[in-house]
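note to self — DONT lose this again. spent like an hour looking for the file last time. sequence + predicted structure for the chain T wanted, 300 res
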Amino acid sequence: MRGNIDLNLLVVFDAVMKERNLRAAGEKLNRSQPAVSQAVARLRDLTGDRLFDRSPTGIIPTPRAEVLWAEVRDPLALLQRTLSTSKFDPAKISGEIVFGVSDDIRILHWPRLAEAILLQAPNVTLRMVETNHTSVWPQLRDGTFDVALTVAGQPPAGMGARIFNQDDFVLLHRKDRKAPKTAKAYSDCRQLALVFDEEQPAYADEALEAAGEARHVIVRTTRFDALPPMVAELDAVVALPRSIATRFAETFGLSTSPLPLPFPTAIQKICWNQKTRNDPQNKWLRALLSDVLNEACAVP
């Protein structure tokens, strides 16, 4: 792109891309069609591309226009919200909010989170995208979702996180099974495993290896809610964060016991891309999630 660019040209460009019609874009911006056409002509000169081709129903963006729009539409939306002189009101927002949610948090907290969000923002649509500790940061960087809720490590550069719960691990098993008291007894049990990345060892494998033991896993899954029926029917055991293990024990008539060897702590976080840290909608969303989750996870 040659020379300096007027931000107003990008505002017009954004409207034209959304409407795919010069007259409709002008009406949206309260500008005449000739003014919109003039802005598009200036952008064509600056980019060295025709940007749009005519069609029977309006206009069709060129590949260069699509690339340019992908680069400017999110920053423009953020800038418009940030510079708005009115106080942010979630009741006035609409559209879709996308969440990355790990399976256990979905089971434990999603209904109350959705209720709290929709109470304040009744016109939005909420969409969940599955995530976990191995995929959350790349997904946030790629813009897959607006905010994520999962176990996560230290955020990398450009990412942000806030802890809302820390869970120790316990063993979920049938009530008629005697809880293992040693690493050897634990390794001899029929094992279930949650696996999100085949190249990354599970916590149980690392803990047993440190104790000089290994285990035989009879079923691997990425789904938390697949575990309780298998624990009951297969007389298997699985190590889980205490909160989800307790829920499963209460719901499925199972038991939990302390693990006979050290496990790391599951640190659950609200995660976001720092590009959105000052976005009023994202700030409101993170604050609301934090309030609901901190109350839900508070120790009685």
